[in-house]
Structure formats: C-alpha cells, structure tokens
Amino acid sequence: MTCQIEITPKTESVDPWARGLLDQARELGMSGISRLQSCQVFVIQGLRDKGEAERAARHLLADPLTEDYRIDSSLLVEGAGRRVLQVLRRPGVMDPAEASVLKALHDMGLAATRVRTAKKLLIEGEFTDESIRLFAAKFLANEVIEEIVLGNAPLALPSEGRDNPLRLRTVTLLEADDSTLMMTSRSGCLSLNLEEMRRIQSYYREQRREPTDVELETLAQTWSEHCVHKTLKGDIRFRGGNIHNLLRSTIFQATQELNKPWCVSVFVDNAGVIEFDDRFDVCFKVETHNHPSAIEPYGGASTGVGGVIRDCLGTGLGAKPILNTDVFCFAPPDVPEADVPKGALHPKRVLKGVVSGVRDYGNRMGIPTANGAIFFDRRYIGNPLVYCGNVGLIPRSCRRKDVQAGDAIVVAGGRTGRDGIHGATFSSAGLTEESEKTSSGAVQIGDAITQKKLMDVLLQARDRGLYRCITDCGAGGLSSAVGEMGRSTGVEVDLERVPLKYAGLSYTEIWISEAQERMVLAVPPDKETEFHALLRSEEVESTTIGRFTGQGDLHLRYGGRTVGRLDMKFLHGGIPRLQREALWTPPEHPDPEMPLKADYGEDLRRILGSWNVCSKEWVIRQYDHEVQGGSVLKPLVGACNDGPGDACVLAPVLGSTRGLIVSNGMSPRYGDLDPYAMAASAIDEALRQIIAAGGRLERVALLDNFCWGNTDKPDRLGSLVLAAQACHDMSLAFGTPFISGKDSLNNEFQNGDVSLAIPPSLLISAIAVIEDVRQAVSMDAKSPGNLFYLVGLTRHELGGSQYYGLYEQLGRSVPQVEPQQARAVMNAVSAATAAGLVRACHDCSEGGLAVAAAEMAFAGGLGLKISLDAVPAAGPLRSEALLFSESTSRFVVEVKPEHRAAFERCVREVPFGCLGVVTADPVLEISGPSREVLIREPLLTLKEAWQRPLRW
Amino acid sequence: MSAVRALVLRTAGTNCDVETAFAFERSGAAVQRLHVNRLAESPRALMDFQILALPGGFSYGDDVAAGKIFANELRFRLGEAVADFVAAGRLVLGICNGFQVMVKMGLLPGPFTPSAAQQVTLTFNDSGKFEDRWVHLQVCSRTCVFTRGLAHLYLPVAHGEGKFVAPGDPALDDLDARQQVAFRYVNENLQPAGYPHNPNGSQRAIAGLCDPTGRVLGLMPHPERHFLPTQHPRWTREGLRPEGDGAAIFRNAVAYFR
Questions:
Q1: Per-residue pLDDT, A311
Q2: Which domains does chain B have, with CATH numbers?
Q3: A434 interface with B at CB cutoff 8 Å
Q4: Is the model's pLDDT at A188 over the cut of 90?
Q5: What average pLDDT does this structure show over A232-243?
Q6: Do residues B205 and B176 touch, judged by C-beta distance below 8 A?
Q7: Are A674 and A814 in contact (CB under 8 A)?
Q8: Surface of A (745-784) touching B: CB under 8 A
Q9: B237 touches chain A (CB under 8 A)
Q10: Which residues between 124 and 153 in chain B have a beta carbon less than 8 angstroms from any beta carbon of chain A?
Q11: B25 and chain A in contact, CB less than 8 A
Q12: Which residues from chain B sit within 8 angstroms of residue A20, using beta carbons?
C-alpha cells in the first residue's frame, strides 16, 4: 500500500522554520498573517498495512515529545482564514532524506519500496491566495527547483520514468554558413564563438561526417571559458603591445622565478600543493560558484562548497579536507525592494541562502569553516560572488598520480541525474532576467552525507593503494573529468553503465550532467574487485564505466553502439586562440575637500556600523569552526570571544604544534580607481593578516581568484591585465609564490538595455606554515599599561576608503604598496613576534588606524589612550587621513612596557611610533597632533555600533 | 595490566571520530574506530571493548531529526548487544550527535532495554539555528563516573538541535533525584543564566545526562574539542594551561577500569 504520513510540531516553540518565516512575513509588511505552522509530509510505498504505517510514524518519523502525526489525513485543516501551502520538489530534484528514511524503515524490518517527502505550511490570518503565493515565492520556495501548490491535495509518487531508447542524433554542420553556425551554438547553449564553431566545422569536414550531438557537447564543455580559461591564456593587445598568455606571463612567471623548493605542485592539479611537515603536504584551492548562487543561493553555495572539497579530494591521490574558507560579495541587505532588478533575488535573501548553504554543507562534511569575509557593493545586485575554498592534508607518499592503459574508469559516489546540465557553459555566459527561468537545469543540488561517505571510504582506498589516479567530477561532468584524465591515453566509455537517479536520461545528458558528489578514478584491473567491495561495505556506490585504452581517442558508446568518437589531440589542442583588446583609462575623480572636524566619534561609529566593517558574528557562529580539533586561533577572539580575528590558525595534525595560517585579502572598492593598486593591496592585506597572526613571509603561498565583468569588453579586460601584472610584481617582491588560481569572467547582469558589471573583484587567499602554533598572536588588547604602537607609514590615501564612502565619495588617492618597505615592515613585526615581544597585533585595513584601534580595544574589553602626533607619516597629514587613511603594510601592536627597548630594536629600520597605552578605563580616546581630543567614545558604544547591523 | 579498549563507532555523517579517538588514546586507551556495518556483522565483538563512544557529527544528515536514523539503526540492528554491554558494567559516552542518538534510542535517561522507548528529547535550539560557541558547565551528578572529581568545565557547543525537553516537571525532578543530570549550563560565575549561556533554551539548563548507574553519559558540549590547551578560545590572553578542561572526562573513563 501507499500511505501519507504527516508530522507537525506540537507548539510554536519547536517550529523554528515557521517562526523564521513569520518574522520574514512581517518584514515584508504582510501583517495579515497571524500564525504559521509547519508540517513534514512522507509518502511511503510498500508498507503492508496501517499497523506498519503506525509503527513508522510513531517510532521513526515523529518525535514523541514535540510532534504529532496523522496517517492518510491532514493535521493542517483549511477553513476561514486558514490556508495550506505545499512545497514540492520538481521532478528530478532529490531530497536526501528520502534515502535515509527508506534505510531506517528497512532497519525496522519494514519492506518499504519508495519514499517521497514534501513540506506543508498552514497560514492563518487575513490574506489573499495571491499574497501568500507571493510570500511563498519570496521566502518559502525557490521555483527553480520547487513547486508551490495551494491546498491539501494528497501527494503522489512521481512516475518512475522510462529508459531512454537510443536515438543517435547528429548535428548538421558541414554546409552551415556563419549565421547557422552561431544559431547552432546559441540554441544548444554551447557558448562557443564563431571562430570555434568554424574550427569544429573544418575538423568534421576533414572527417567527412557530421558531428553527433554528444561530440559537439563534449567540445563545448572542454572548450568553455570555465574549463580552459581561454581569455587569460589567449592573446591580448594592450597599450600597443601583445600579451601572449596573460596568466603565463604574469602569475605563473613569478612562481617559476621564485622557484621555491617547498612548492610541490603548482597550477597543474586540482589544487596547489606545498610542503607541510616531514609526513604531509597541504593543498589549497578556492573556487567560485557565482551564477548558480545568483539563481538558487542555497543550492548554489552548498554545491560550491561541495565542489571545492572534491577539488582537494581529487588532488594528488586525494587529500583529507581540513579547512573551509568562504568569501562573499553581495549588494547591501537594506537595498529597497524596488531597486532589485527583475530576475534578480533580493540581496538579503541571497545572503541568508548562501550562508545557510555553506553552513549546512560544510558542517555536515565535518570540515571547520574558519576564515572568510563579506563585501558589499550595490553592483553585486544581479551577480553575487561566492568564493569557496578548501585546504587539504595529503601524505607525501600520495603526490604522484598517473593513468595506464587497461585501467578501469570508475565513477564513485552519487548517482547521475539531470541536475547541473550545462553548468560549465552557463557560467561562461552572462546572467539575464531570463536566467532564472532558462537555467534551472544548471542548478545543482547538494547532498553532503553522500559526499562525506565517499570521502571517508576513498581515503581508506587511497591508503590501501587501490587506485592510480583520481579527479573530481565538476563542471562539464564526466565529459570533463574522463576527457581530462584520459587525454594522454584515450578512453572508451559505455554510458549506459553510469548509475542514474531515475530513468530517462539521454546519453548526452549522462555525459555532461553535473550531478554532485561524484569522483572519477583510474583503478588497475587487479584492484577492481577489492575497490568496489570496500566502497560497498560503507554503502557507497561505485561502477566501472569504461577503460583507458592507449588508442588516443575518446570513444563513447551507448547500448553497444558508438555515439561519439573524438581525437583527444583535437579535443584538447584544437581550440583557437582568443584575440582580445584591452584598454585602461584611469578615471578622473579628485579627492574631495572634507571639512575639518573637532570630533570624529560619529564618523568612527558610522564606519564600524557600515556593512563592510561591521561584525560578521551572525554568519561565523553558524559555521562549525572547531570540528576536527585543530583550531588554535578562531575567527572570533578576545575577552568575550567576539572580536574580529585577522587570520585563522590551525594545527591539523593532532598532537603536533606545527600549524597553518590562512587569510584572505580583497579590495574591490579600489579597483575603479587603480586596478594595479587594488591587486597589490589585496595581496598586502592577505599577507598582513598572516604576519599579524604570527606568521612569516618565508613560507607563504598565494591563490588568485579573478571575478570580473565581461572581458570581451576592452575596459574590463584592461583592468584585469593591470591586476594580473600587480600579482606578478608583488609575488616577486614579497617572495610569495602563487600556487593555484581560478577566474570567472562574465559577471554581468543584463537588465533591459543596461549591462550591470560587478566591480573588478580579485580575491587573494594566503596560506602559511607556522612552526609552532604557540607563537600565534591574537588581535585583542590584553592588559592595561601595555604600550600601543603603529608600525608602517601612513600617507594621505583615502581614495576608495570607508571614510570617503560615508560621504558617498570615491576620491582618487588609492593606497599604494611599496613592496620593499612593506616587506621590511612585515619582517620586522615577524621578528618581534618570534621573540615573544608582541601581546596583540592587528592589521590596519578598512577604516584605517581608528577602526583597527577600536577593534583591538573592544575585543579586549580594554580602553586605549593614544595620540596621533606619534604616527609615522609621509609629511604633515590632516586628522581625517591620520585616522582613516587606508595606507597598506601597517600594523597596530601591543607591547609590554618592559619589552619597549627590545621591541623598538626589532622595528628600528622601519617607520614606527608609540602612540599611547592600553587602559583599564573602557574608553577609546584619540587625540590629534596638538593634543586636542578627536575621538572619545565608550567601548560599549563602539561595539554596539559594530555589532548592531548583522544582529539578525 | 592490559590496555583499556575503547570503540569509537562511526557511520555515514559521523564527524568527530578522529578527535574523539585521539582524546581516548592520549588518555591511555587502545582505540579502534569502526564503521557500524562492521559491528553489525558481528555484534558480539562489542564485548571486546570496555568503552563505547558515539562521536559528534550529522549521522545520516540528521534527516527526520538529529541522530534519529542512527538511533533507529542501533536499536534495531544492535539493541541486544548495547543492552548487554551496559548490563556488563561497561561505559558509554555520547557527544553531541552521539547524545542525540542515545536519547532517541532510549539509551538515556535509561535504563536501556532493546524495546525501550524514547522518553525525553533534544530539539531545535530556541535561536532557530546552528551555533558554535563556548559554554560554562556545572557538574551536577554525584554518581556519574566520567565527572568524578570535577566541578566545572568550559567547553564548546556546536549544534542546531540541542534543546533538552522532558515530558514535564515530575520527569525533570526525577532526573535530579536520581543524580542523572550530569551537567547544567551556567554563566562565568557559575550561576544559572539565559541565552547565550544556556545556548539552546534547554529545560532546567540541562546540558548532559547520565543513566541511573552513572556509567552511560551523553552531553551536547564537546569535551574532545577542549582537550589540548591551544583549543581554548582565549589562550592568547590567559596563557596556556597544562591541558584542556575536557581531558578529565576521558581520563576518568579510562581510570574507571584501572
């Protein structure tokens, strides 16, 4: 029989979903809704009778204390002022709970065959159907993946689908003219340009046959911007010269020149790898998942986390993930609803969805999320950015991987469905108001536990030596993973062997699906049985779908018949070089004339309370940042565990004090004025945080992530060229190599006639090895009577600053990095830390000295009494520059009075000044050059200003 | 003297097995981490161990309710073995998700039989969301063998469903009377206090329970995450101590068999 069991919370106090929705309804001004009650629906097929349904409901599905259940009738009753809404997943969108419930029913000895879940909500009050549909569309469901149904109609099990009979399709290309070629590219969502289509046409003319659909798809996936980074590796004409492969001539070049012996693998594998200790290396990768997160924030962000974890799991022979990082860019959450362009989601919803997605996936994977940042700018409104990073620990014996002819191609983990079709090509095109409708297939759905099981068992298989090569199945699905792994050998794949979530997929869909939680491995024939048995023993599915051949071609079969055959050389080497124009015209914004003030307290409070500077505790606490036991410096530090730590420090090998410091830097607001300075500043910031936490420049590796507007447009590309050149110069000057990077180059939102580009957004992530984590330093003020120093030179650099931002000014004087001096400052601070002379250290960034001092004070629960006359400055500066200039390479440092001489010896070669003392009086007092008090604010007031905005 | 043997049981979604095993190892136990499927193949193998640990995590994704699917599995696949293990005078420790599992299979507050029903519950935090924060705990039970000699602990919690709920005041009174309340959330002055000191809104601020024998303990906070002195959130202010507060729980467990 088939039965429907409904579960509902007995009281509102145990119904957090309904409570959260009610708050949101009130925020939306829907005061007519007076009460909400949630309900979980399970439809179960295969139980023998009502008695079994009763057992399932009572012992498994309902909590005896907090929930009521009902079988085959609804607990939520409609009537006057009472309406029921159902949220159903669209066909093909899976709920992992269905498999869990089925397993549990079997554990109970019940022979259930299928389970389907859904959510219901009872709404009470005064409203119209139309208004609650609107409410549901805004907060309850995402219609990309879910369907909203009004009323209490019983839920049906979806049809099982039918096998897809083989229908071999070819595409007519040989005789096509240019416009037909482009039509074929567009209608197939291939994102191939004319020159690429022509190249493909001429390849098939040589072959004297038309391509099959799956061949064309394979080329589109493999040649997508997402997979090959053709812009950054192509030819760029800039300032009268030609740049042949921008990445190679800037970022790779610097790494090669530095030639650090501790760099194990750079820019080749799924993540960059450096040495950690005598047993382990560490790998680090940061990915973006912007377009999926714009359409479906929760799913997009969670699969972004899942994807970057698989990158590390697919590096070398597989790393154990030990840390997640996340950096987001959104429009401010208080943007009026009316200003949100059609087709875009409100930034508050995006933020909440993204944070929940990162939280649920990262926490379930048991990986601490301990470093991140959030930036706000209105230009992210149609195109939020979601950067997800992962660090992995990998035994030194697992560095090498290869593939040999005869090895089995094995796909392991999740099953393949229609999810994520065309993700790689979708992310290589711009977003439009239609994206929400047309790209639902491009949204992937995450299932963290499937991936956790896969990870646990693959690390055992690795240690038993059961496979020779591993890679993740990400953008482009099997087409990219298998195509890439077999590029030197050739492969044959039987697509009907790939395990499916449901029947009905075509061979092409199977080949390019971006269904999550899958890894592809090369398993030697003599290990196949043991490999599959091991995975099965922990309930992880694995299937041999083909062989590496030694034939040098990609051979796809379905039902025994060839459906695609491509020369690997053409697939990987045939793509024509892109030619792009780049130009850069510096904008002309003079610095504004700011009035001198007698009191800057209000300005300081307003900066502390701005979206970019305010406390991110609401986000941070939702992430488990301590799982695995390695945390040494947590993201929240200080007397009340709530101050803004600079970088996270962890000791990943339990029992060892050797550790890692991880930080990030980003300065999108400088990019409009000077992209070179912006990139230099981001690098300086990431390095500053490493140094502030107790690290040294000697063992730091960097990662780059470029998120830009449409770089087909010369001005966008020009700023990118300058940023890449800064990466090269700074990498060399600081002696810190880049080991991995990624770019996302089409972040524009087409709103009617206007194309809204994001600000140039370069994220720099840094990872450092610290020999003894007990040397780590936190940023909170420690004891009254200690001295307060500023190390590094302050200039009039308020261009793009938070201070100008308060007055809606941009200015011009962007902070510049003087790399030789920056390096000297950082080395001096490191030397003082290593000598145990530093009690607290905080980097000066957004908001300058005033914000850094305020944060150090309220994090420590201690006051500061400081004077600006001792600030080491480039010439006489006005008060607002001394307080709020964002000059780079500066630190505020707390030193015990007895260490004064020793500390000053460490920093004597670089600009420094002793500005004042830490006090027991809980007040921040800053006086100006002529001893006049410019800021005198109680810590409680400052901290409240800083904590209030995101106290949700 | 042969080593005290501890079994750290894991399944799909178990996260804290490695650090829990580390804590037992450092406390002198010989530890094995084992997948539940291996134990289900030969349930009697449980008796080879003196201590059973159910670590933190999101077993089976916390689908249906936190710990529920794993609790159901242990009850129906390994109920007899667990009952025999407890009856034989062995120790069971459940941390976070492990505590949720114990409560939902009826192992706590106990006494446990394979047909036991769930008597109390751990449900959604009052804040409605997962939170990672440090809490002060007062040790309450005089019979719990894991907390012998302890008065107060400082440990992190990291959960979304940790609010303790009992059927009513008499049930809560009974737990106190039988010395089954192992820990209560308190403030830094060890006084009763509301959120965030009581991080989830637990009734009577209950953070952990033991069975009437004191040999079966479950708690929401993570003692294995405050085992090393560098795990303390303020060690850079207050200095490094010899060990973290949680270490004593593991040492007491091992010492019980010495």
A1: 96
A2: 5-256 (3.40.50.880)
A3: no
A4: no
A5: 92
A6: no
A7: yes
A8: 773-774, 776-778, 780, 782
A9: yes
A10: 124-126, 128-134
A11: no
A12: 128
Of these ranges, A95-104, A419-428, A696-705, the one predicted with the greatest mean pLDDT is: A696-705
pLDDT band at A439 (very low <50, low <70, confident <90, very high): very low
The three-state (H, E, C) secondary structure of A664-718, written as one string: EECCHHHCCCCHHHHHHHHHHHHHHHHHHCCCCHHHEEEEEEEECCCCCCHHHHH
CB contact under 8 A, B129 and A448: no
Residue B197 near chain A (CB below 8 Å)? no
Residue B236 touches partner A, C-beta closer than 8 Å: yes
Question: Which of A289, A346, A555, A625 is labelled catalytic?
Answer: A289
ipTM of the complex: 0.97
Q: How far B65 CA lies from chain A's nearest CA (Å)?
A: 8
Q: What gap in Å lies between CA B228 and CA A630, rounded to an integer? A: 9
**CA atoms within a 13 Å half-sphere pointing along the CA-CB vector of A701:** 33
| pLDDT score at A440 | 47
Residue A104 contacts B, CB cutoff 8 Å: yes
- Cβ neighbours of B60 in A, within 8 Å: 100, 103-104, 449
- What sign does the dihedral A185-A188-A191-A192 (CA atoms) show? negative
Q: What is the pLDDT of residues A30-65, one digit of tens each?
A: 788 999 999 999 999 999 999 999 999 999 999 999
Query: In the structure, what pLDDT confidence band is assigned to residue A438 with cuts at 50, 70 and 90?
Result: very low
For the cut 60, the answer to whether the pLDDT of residue A435 exceeds it is no
Q: Do the beta carbons of residue B96 and residue B16 sit within 8 Å?
A: yes
Question: What's the full length of chain B, in residues?
Answer: 258
| pLDDT exceeds cutoff 50 at A891 | yes
Cβ-proximal residues to A557 (8 Å cutoff; 6+ apart), any chain: A492, A493, A494, A495, A563
My answer on whether omega of the bond before A368 falls inside 30° of 0, hence cis, is no
Chain A residues in contact with B19 by the CB 8 A cut-off are 627-629, 654
Residue A655 to residue B37, Cβ atoms within 8 A: no
- Residue A341: predicted pLDDT: 92
Q: For chain A, how many residues are written?
A: 952
pLDDT at residue A541 is higher than 70: yes
Inspect the interface and report whether the beta carbons of A100 and B69 lie closer than 8 Å.
yes
Determine contact, residues A42/A157, Cβ cutoff 8 Å: no
Q: Mark yes or no for CB contact A627/B56 under 8 Å.
A: yes
Closest residue of A to B231, CA-based?
A632
Q: Which of B221, B229, B220 is nearest to B247 (CA)?
A: B229
Nearest residue to A450 (alpha-carbon basis) of A368, A516, A355: A516
Chain B: residue nearest A838 by CA?
B236
Residue for token pair 């030619």:
A579
Query: Could you tell me what percent of chain B has a pLDDT over 70?
Result: 100
Say yes or no for a CB contact (<8 Å) between A626 and B132.
Answer: yes
> What distance in Å separates the CA atoms of residue B9 and residue A219, rounded to the nearest whole number?
47
Tokens of A289: 């998942």
Pair A661, A770: CB distance under 8 Å: yes
pTM score: 0.96
Please tell me the predicted confidence (pLDDT) of residue A347. 95
pLDDT band at A431 (very low <50, low <70, confident <90, very high): low
| A595: closest CA of chain B, how far (Å) | 40
CB within 8 Å: A637 and B233: yes
